[in-house]
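Wed. Picked up where I left off yesterday with Anhydro-N-acetylmuramic acid kinase. The coffee machine is broken again, so keeping this brief.
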Amino acid sequence: MPQAHNDAPLVIGLMSGTSADGIDAALIRTTGEGRPQPIAYLETPHPAEIRDEILALQQSGPEEIERLGEMSRRLAERFAEAATALCRQADVRIHDIALIGCHGQTIRHRPPHFSLQIGSAAIIAARTGVTTVSDFRTPDMALGGEGAPLAPYYHQALFADASDSACDVVVNLGGIANVTLLQKPPAPPIVAGDTGPANALMDELSMRLSGGLECCDRDGQRAAAGAVDAEALAWLMAHPYLKRPLPKSTGKEDFSPALLDRWLSAFPAMGGNDGVATLLAFTTQSIAEAILQAANSTPERIILCGGGANNPALRRQIAARLPSARILTSAELGVDHNAMEAEAFAWLAMRALRGLPTGDTAVTGAHGAAILGSLSPGGNWRDALALAARLNAASPAPTNQTV
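Structure written out below (C-alpha coordinates, as returned):
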Protein backbone atom coordinates (compact mmCIF):
# COMPACT_ATOMS: atom_id res chain seq x y z
CA MET A 1 0.00 0.00 0.00
CA PRO A 2 1.30 3.51 -0.78
CA GLN A 3 2.62 5.90 1.85
CA ALA A 4 0.56 9.02 2.52
CA HIS A 5 1.87 12.08 0.67
CA ASN A 6 3.13 15.17 2.46
CA ASP A 7 -0.05 16.99 1.38
CA ALA A 8 -2.40 14.34 2.80
CA PRO A 9 -4.84 15.66 5.42
CA LEU A 10 -3.70 16.12 9.02
CA VAL A 11 -5.73 13.96 11.42
CA ILE A 12 -5.49 13.59 15.21
CA GLY A 13 -6.23 10.34 17.03
CA LEU A 14 -7.12 10.35 20.75
CA MET A 15 -7.64 7.55 23.22
CA SER A 16 -7.44 6.52 26.86
CA GLY A 17 -6.79 2.80 27.25
CA THR A 18 -8.16 0.20 29.63
CA SER A 19 -5.42 1.00 32.14
CA ALA A 20 -6.83 4.57 32.32
CA ASP A 21 -3.36 5.98 32.98
CA GLY A 22 -3.61 8.85 30.51
CA ILE A 23 -4.47 10.18 27.07
CA ASP A 24 -2.53 9.17 23.98
CA ALA A 25 -2.69 11.77 21.20
CA ALA A 26 -1.19 11.14 17.77
CA LEU A 27 -0.99 13.31 14.67
CA ILE A 28 -0.71 11.68 11.25
CA ARG A 29 -1.19 12.51 7.60
CA THR A 30 -3.61 10.07 6.02
CA THR A 31 -6.25 9.63 3.35
CA GLY A 32 -7.64 6.57 5.15
CA GLU A 33 -6.02 4.30 2.58
CA GLY A 34 -2.56 2.83 2.68
CA ARG A 35 0.20 3.59 5.14
CA PRO A 36 -0.08 6.97 6.92
CA GLN A 37 2.72 9.41 7.68
CA PRO A 38 3.27 9.89 11.45
CA ILE A 39 3.90 13.47 12.54
CA ALA A 40 3.80 13.71 16.35
CA TYR A 41 2.77 11.93 19.54
CA LEU A 42 1.96 13.21 23.02
CA GLU A 43 1.07 11.35 26.20
CA THR A 44 -0.84 13.22 28.91
CA PRO A 45 -1.10 11.34 32.24
CA HIS A 46 -4.40 11.39 34.09
CA PRO A 47 -4.37 12.78 37.64
CA ALA A 48 -4.84 10.02 40.21
CA GLU A 49 -8.32 11.31 41.05
CA ILE A 50 -9.53 10.92 37.44
CA ARG A 51 -7.88 7.53 36.99
CA ASP A 52 -9.45 6.25 40.21
CA GLU A 53 -12.91 7.44 39.16
CA ILE A 54 -12.58 5.85 35.70
CA LEU A 55 -11.60 2.53 37.26
CA ALA A 56 -14.48 2.82 39.74
CA LEU A 57 -16.94 3.46 36.90
CA GLN A 58 -15.84 0.22 35.25
CA GLN A 59 -17.64 -1.54 38.12
CA SER A 60 -21.28 -1.06 39.12
CA GLY A 61 -21.71 1.53 41.87
CA PRO A 62 -23.92 4.23 43.41
CA GLU A 63 -25.16 7.23 41.38
CA GLU A 64 -23.54 5.59 38.39
CA ILE A 65 -25.36 7.47 35.62
CA GLU A 66 -24.68 10.90 37.11
CA ARG A 67 -21.00 10.09 37.70
CA LEU A 68 -20.75 8.67 34.18
CA GLY A 69 -22.16 11.81 32.58
CA GLU A 70 -19.88 14.06 34.58
CA MET A 71 -16.78 12.01 33.74
CA SER A 72 -17.74 11.98 30.05
CA ARG A 73 -17.77 15.78 30.12
CA ARG A 74 -14.49 16.06 32.03
CA LEU A 75 -12.72 13.59 29.76
CA ALA A 76 -13.96 15.42 26.66
CA GLU A 77 -12.41 18.64 27.96
CA ARG A 78 -9.14 16.77 28.58
CA PHE A 79 -9.23 15.19 25.12
CA ALA A 80 -9.70 18.64 23.55
CA GLU A 81 -6.81 20.02 25.61
CA ALA A 82 -4.62 17.09 24.53
CA ALA A 83 -5.41 17.78 20.87
CA THR A 84 -4.46 21.45 21.14
CA ALA A 85 -1.30 20.59 23.13
CA LEU A 86 -0.30 18.10 20.43
CA CYS A 87 -0.69 20.80 17.80
CA ARG A 88 1.53 23.14 19.80
CA GLN A 89 4.17 20.44 20.10
CA ALA A 90 4.05 19.77 16.35
CA ASP A 91 3.97 23.51 15.50
CA VAL A 92 0.69 23.00 13.65
CA ARG A 93 -2.40 25.22 13.93
CA ILE A 94 -5.52 23.48 15.21
CA HIS A 95 -7.36 25.07 12.26
CA ASP A 96 -5.14 23.04 9.92
CA ILE A 97 -6.43 19.76 11.37
CA ALA A 98 -8.94 18.13 9.04
CA LEU A 99 -10.43 15.65 11.49
CA ILE A 100 -10.19 14.17 14.98
CA GLY A 101 -10.83 10.52 15.78
CA CYS A 102 -11.51 9.95 19.48
CA HIS A 103 -11.93 6.42 20.76
CA GLY A 104 -12.77 7.72 24.22
CA GLN A 105 -12.54 5.74 27.45
CA THR A 106 -14.11 2.29 27.61
CA ILE A 107 -16.38 1.85 30.62
CA ARG A 108 -18.11 -1.39 29.60
CA HIS A 109 -17.41 -3.85 26.80
CA ARG A 110 -20.15 -6.47 26.68
CA PRO A 111 -20.15 -8.18 23.29
CA PRO A 112 -22.29 -8.97 21.42
CA HIS A 113 -24.73 -6.50 23.01
CA PHE A 114 -22.91 -3.20 23.51
CA SER A 115 -19.63 -1.40 24.09
CA LEU A 116 -19.64 1.93 25.93
CA GLN A 117 -16.95 4.58 25.56
CA ILE A 118 -17.22 8.03 27.14
CA GLY A 119 -15.73 11.43 26.32
CA SER A 120 -18.28 13.54 24.42
CA ALA A 121 -17.25 14.03 20.80
CA ALA A 122 -19.60 17.02 20.55
CA ILE A 123 -17.63 18.80 23.28
CA ILE A 124 -14.32 17.98 21.58
CA ALA A 125 -15.64 19.35 18.27
CA ALA A 126 -16.95 22.49 19.99
CA ARG A 127 -13.71 23.19 21.86
CA THR A 128 -11.37 22.55 18.92
CA GLY A 129 -13.56 23.56 15.98
CA VAL A 130 -12.63 20.24 14.35
CA THR A 131 -15.17 17.63 13.22
CA THR A 132 -14.75 14.61 15.49
CA VAL A 133 -15.45 10.91 14.87
CA SER A 134 -16.29 8.65 17.83
CA ASP A 135 -18.25 5.49 18.74
CA PHE A 136 -16.20 3.28 16.42
CA ARG A 137 -17.34 -0.04 17.87
CA THR A 138 -21.14 0.10 17.64
CA PRO A 139 -21.40 -0.16 13.81
CA ASP A 140 -19.41 -3.40 13.88
CA MET A 141 -21.60 -4.80 16.65
CA ALA A 142 -24.70 -3.88 14.65
CA LEU A 143 -23.47 -6.39 12.05
CA GLY A 144 -23.02 -9.16 14.61
CA GLY A 145 -19.39 -8.40 15.45
CA GLU A 146 -17.71 -8.05 18.83
CA GLY A 147 -16.76 -4.42 18.14
CA ALA A 148 -13.16 -5.28 18.96
CA PRO A 149 -10.35 -5.43 18.30
CA LEU A 150 -10.21 -2.66 15.70
CA ALA A 151 -6.47 -1.91 15.70
CA PRO A 152 -5.78 -5.00 13.49
CA TYR A 153 -7.11 -3.13 10.44
CA TYR A 154 -4.45 -0.50 11.02
CA HIS A 155 -1.84 -3.20 11.58
CA GLN A 156 -2.80 -4.61 8.19
CA ALA A 157 -2.40 -1.21 6.53
CA LEU A 158 1.02 -0.73 8.15
CA PHE A 159 2.63 -4.12 7.78
CA ALA A 160 0.82 -6.50 5.41
CA ASP A 161 2.65 -5.41 2.26
CA ALA A 162 5.96 -4.66 4.00
CA SER A 163 7.09 -8.26 4.44
CA ASP A 164 7.50 -11.47 2.46
CA SER A 165 6.92 -13.56 5.59
CA ALA A 166 4.29 -16.29 5.36
CA CYS A 167 3.05 -15.21 8.79
CA ASP A 168 3.79 -12.10 10.84
CA VAL A 169 1.99 -11.40 14.11
CA VAL A 170 1.39 -7.95 15.60
CA VAL A 171 0.88 -8.13 19.38
CA ASN A 172 -0.71 -5.07 20.96
CA LEU A 173 0.14 -5.01 24.68
CA GLY A 174 -2.22 -2.61 26.39
CA GLY A 175 -4.39 -3.47 29.37
CA ILE A 176 -5.75 -6.28 27.20
CA ALA A 177 -3.60 -8.11 24.64
CA ASN A 178 -4.72 -8.48 21.06
CA VAL A 179 -2.99 -10.24 18.21
CA THR A 180 -3.14 -9.69 14.45
CA LEU A 181 -1.98 -12.54 12.23
CA LEU A 182 -0.94 -11.24 8.80
CA GLN A 183 -0.62 -14.22 6.47
CA LYS A 184 0.10 -14.93 2.82
CA PRO A 185 -2.15 -17.13 0.61
CA PRO A 186 -3.52 -19.73 0.83
CA ALA A 187 -4.01 -18.81 4.51
CA PRO A 188 -6.61 -16.16 5.45
CA PRO A 189 -4.88 -12.77 5.02
CA ILE A 190 -5.85 -11.54 8.50
CA VAL A 191 -6.99 -13.25 11.70
CA ALA A 192 -7.23 -11.32 14.96
CA GLY A 193 -8.68 -11.11 18.43
CA ASP A 194 -8.10 -10.38 22.09
CA THR A 195 -6.11 -13.12 23.82
CA GLY A 196 -6.70 -12.02 27.43
CA PRO A 197 -4.91 -9.62 29.76
CA ALA A 198 -1.62 -7.97 28.88
CA ASN A 199 -0.90 -5.41 31.58
CA ALA A 200 -4.28 -5.10 33.32
CA LEU A 201 -3.82 -7.61 36.15
CA MET A 202 -0.10 -6.88 36.58
CA ASP A 203 -0.85 -3.17 36.83
CA GLU A 204 -3.54 -3.75 39.44
CA LEU A 205 -1.31 -5.93 41.63
CA SER A 206 1.65 -3.55 41.26
CA MET A 207 -0.56 -0.65 42.33
CA ARG A 208 -1.68 -2.56 45.42
CA LEU A 209 1.86 -3.61 46.33
CA SER A 210 3.11 -0.02 46.08
CA GLY A 211 0.23 1.51 48.01
CA GLY A 212 -0.93 3.28 44.86
CA LEU A 213 2.46 4.84 44.10
CA GLU A 214 3.17 2.65 41.05
CA CYS A 215 0.60 2.23 38.29
CA CYS A 216 2.58 -0.58 36.63
CA ASP A 217 5.53 -2.93 37.05
CA ARG A 218 8.15 -0.50 35.76
CA ASP A 219 10.61 -2.28 33.43
CA GLY A 220 9.30 -5.63 34.71
CA GLN A 221 11.36 -5.30 37.89
CA ARG A 222 8.84 -7.00 40.18
CA ALA A 223 8.27 -9.86 37.75
CA ALA A 224 12.01 -10.35 37.33
CA ALA A 225 12.44 -10.51 41.12
CA GLY A 226 9.66 -13.08 41.55
CA ALA A 227 9.14 -16.75 40.72
CA VAL A 228 6.27 -18.33 38.79
CA ASP A 229 3.93 -20.57 40.78
CA ALA A 230 2.80 -23.40 38.48
CA GLU A 231 -0.41 -24.17 40.38
CA ALA A 232 -1.45 -20.52 40.54
CA LEU A 233 -0.70 -20.17 36.82
CA ALA A 234 -2.79 -23.23 36.00
CA TRP A 235 -5.73 -21.68 37.89
CA LEU A 236 -5.53 -18.60 35.67
CA MET A 237 -5.09 -20.60 32.46
CA ALA A 238 -8.33 -22.45 33.22
CA HIS A 239 -10.32 -19.24 32.58
CA PRO A 240 -13.13 -20.12 30.13
CA TYR A 241 -12.39 -17.14 27.87
CA LEU A 242 -9.09 -18.72 26.84
CA LYS A 243 -10.87 -21.77 25.41
CA ARG A 244 -12.68 -19.70 22.77
CA PRO A 245 -11.01 -19.51 19.33
CA LEU A 246 -10.22 -16.26 17.55
CA PRO A 247 -11.90 -13.93 16.66
CA LYS A 248 -13.01 -12.85 20.12
CA SER A 249 -12.79 -9.82 22.38
CA THR A 250 -12.68 -9.17 26.09
CA GLY A 251 -12.03 -6.47 28.65
CA LYS A 252 -11.91 -5.81 32.36
CA GLU A 253 -15.32 -7.42 32.67
CA ASP A 254 -13.56 -10.80 32.35
CA PHE A 255 -10.15 -9.87 33.77
CA SER A 256 -11.07 -7.51 36.57
CA PRO A 257 -9.80 -6.64 40.04
CA ALA A 258 -12.50 -9.04 41.29
CA LEU A 259 -10.77 -11.90 39.44
CA LEU A 260 -7.48 -10.86 41.03
CA ASP A 261 -9.17 -10.91 44.45
CA ARG A 262 -10.44 -14.46 43.90
CA TRP A 263 -7.01 -15.59 42.75
CA LEU A 264 -5.25 -14.03 45.73
CA SER A 265 -7.80 -15.63 48.04
CA ALA A 266 -7.02 -19.04 46.52
CA PHE A 267 -3.26 -18.41 46.50
CA PRO A 268 -2.35 -15.98 49.32
CA ALA A 269 1.37 -16.34 48.60
CA MET A 270 0.79 -14.53 45.28
CA GLY A 271 0.42 -11.17 47.05
CA GLY A 272 4.00 -10.14 46.26
CA ASN A 273 6.56 -10.25 43.46
CA ASP A 274 5.85 -13.94 42.84
CA GLY A 275 2.31 -12.90 41.99
CA VAL A 276 3.50 -10.34 39.44
CA ALA A 277 5.82 -12.95 37.91
CA THR A 278 2.97 -15.45 37.66
CA LEU A 279 0.63 -12.88 36.11
CA LEU A 280 3.33 -12.09 33.55
CA ALA A 281 3.55 -15.79 32.74
CA PHE A 282 -0.24 -15.85 32.36
CA THR A 283 -0.08 -12.98 29.87
CA THR A 284 2.66 -14.51 27.74
CA GLN A 285 1.35 -18.08 27.80
CA SER A 286 -2.17 -17.01 26.79
CA ILE A 287 -0.74 -14.90 23.96
CA ALA A 288 1.53 -17.66 22.67
CA GLU A 289 -1.16 -20.34 22.79
CA ALA A 290 -3.66 -18.14 20.93
CA ILE A 291 -1.10 -17.40 18.20
CA LEU A 292 -0.10 -21.03 17.72
CA GLN A 293 -3.73 -22.20 17.63
CA ALA A 294 -4.74 -19.61 15.01
CA ALA A 295 -1.68 -19.52 12.74
CA ASN A 296 -1.61 -21.58 9.54
CA SER A 297 2.19 -21.60 9.65
CA THR A 298 4.91 -20.87 12.19
CA PRO A 299 5.12 -17.10 12.75
CA GLU A 300 8.32 -15.58 11.40
CA ARG A 301 8.11 -12.19 13.12
CA ILE A 302 6.36 -11.05 16.30
CA ILE A 303 5.91 -7.26 16.20
CA LEU A 304 5.20 -5.79 19.64
CA CYS A 305 3.37 -2.52 20.24
CA GLY A 306 1.52 -0.81 23.08
CA GLY A 307 2.78 0.03 26.55
CA GLY A 308 3.80 -3.55 27.30
CA ALA A 309 6.42 -3.37 24.56
CA ASN A 310 8.42 -1.20 26.99
CA ASN A 311 8.61 -4.08 29.51
CA PRO A 312 11.83 -6.10 28.97
CA ALA A 313 10.57 -9.00 31.11
CA LEU A 314 7.47 -9.26 28.93
CA ARG A 315 9.56 -9.18 25.75
CA ARG A 316 11.89 -11.89 27.05
CA GLN A 317 9.05 -14.23 27.98
CA ILE A 318 7.30 -13.85 24.63
CA ALA A 319 10.61 -14.67 22.94
CA ALA A 320 11.05 -17.74 25.14
CA ARG A 321 7.55 -19.03 24.34
CA LEU A 322 7.90 -18.43 20.57
CA PRO A 323 11.59 -19.29 20.04
CA SER A 324 11.43 -19.70 16.26
CA ALA A 325 10.12 -16.17 15.69
CA ARG A 326 12.07 -12.94 15.53
CA ILE A 327 10.81 -10.59 18.26
CA LEU A 328 10.90 -6.87 17.56
CA THR A 329 8.98 -3.74 18.45
CA SER A 330 7.08 -1.73 15.87
CA ALA A 331 9.53 1.11 16.57
CA GLU A 332 12.19 -0.99 14.84
CA LEU A 333 9.97 -0.83 11.74
CA GLY A 334 9.50 2.93 11.98
CA VAL A 335 6.19 2.95 13.88
CA ASP A 336 6.13 4.32 17.45
CA HIS A 337 4.76 1.44 19.53
CA ASN A 338 3.32 3.85 22.09
CA ALA A 339 1.48 5.93 19.47
CA MET A 340 0.11 3.14 17.29
CA GLU A 341 -3.35 2.74 18.79
CA ALA A 342 -4.07 6.48 18.82
CA GLU A 343 -2.87 6.61 15.21
CA ALA A 344 -5.27 3.78 14.39
CA PHE A 345 -8.28 5.84 15.43
CA ALA A 346 -7.08 8.82 13.40
CA TRP A 347 -6.85 6.51 10.37
CA LEU A 348 -10.25 4.93 11.05
CA ALA A 349 -11.77 8.41 11.45
CA MET A 350 -10.69 9.39 7.95
CA ARG A 351 -12.16 6.17 6.60
CA ALA A 352 -15.46 7.03 8.32
CA LEU A 353 -15.51 10.56 6.89
CA ARG A 354 -14.98 9.16 3.40
CA GLY A 355 -17.56 6.41 3.84
CA LEU A 356 -15.00 3.62 3.45
CA PRO A 357 -16.27 0.33 4.92
CA THR A 358 -13.91 -1.48 7.26
CA GLY A 359 -14.33 -5.00 8.55
CA ASP A 360 -13.50 -8.70 8.33
CA THR A 361 -15.29 -11.66 9.88
CA ALA A 362 -11.92 -13.11 10.95
CA VAL A 363 -11.19 -10.01 13.07
CA THR A 364 -14.41 -9.25 14.95
CA GLY A 365 -16.88 -11.86 13.73
CA ALA A 366 -19.06 -9.26 11.98
CA HIS A 367 -20.93 -10.52 8.92
CA GLY A 368 -19.90 -7.54 6.81
CA ALA A 369 -17.79 -4.41 6.64
CA ALA A 370 -19.22 -1.26 8.25
CA ILE A 371 -18.45 2.44 8.22
CA LEU A 372 -16.95 2.63 11.70
CA GLY A 373 -17.78 5.75 13.67
CA SER A 374 -20.28 8.54 14.28
CA LEU A 375 -19.53 12.12 13.26
CA SER A 376 -19.92 15.23 15.43
CA PRO A 377 -19.59 18.28 13.16
CA GLY A 378 -17.17 21.01 14.19
CA GLY A 379 -16.63 24.48 12.81
CA ASN A 380 -14.80 22.94 9.83
CA TRP A 381 -17.74 20.68 8.89
CA ARG A 382 -18.22 22.07 5.37
CA ASP A 383 -14.49 21.83 4.74
CA ALA A 384 -14.51 18.23 5.98
CA LEU A 385 -17.33 17.33 3.58
CA ALA A 386 -15.48 18.97 0.70
CA LEU A 387 -12.32 17.08 1.64
CA ALA A 388 -14.15 13.75 1.63
CA ALA A 389 -15.65 14.51 -1.79
CA ARG A 390 -12.25 15.48 -3.19
CA LEU A 391 -10.51 12.35 -1.85
CA ASN A 392 -13.29 10.07 -3.08
CA ALA A 393 -13.19 11.65 -6.53
CA ALA A 394 -9.46 10.92 -6.71
CA SER A 395 -9.88 7.37 -5.35
CA PRO A 396 -13.50 6.22 -5.62
CA ALA A 397 -14.74 4.42 -2.52
CA PRO A 398 -15.69 0.77 -3.04
CA THR A 399 -19.18 -0.27 -1.98
CA ASN A 400 -17.94 -2.97 0.40
CA GLN A 401 -14.43 -3.99 1.38
CA THR A 402 -12.05 -4.90 4.10
CA VAL A 403 -8.95 -2.73 4.33
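Quick read: The chain has a mean pLDDT of 95.
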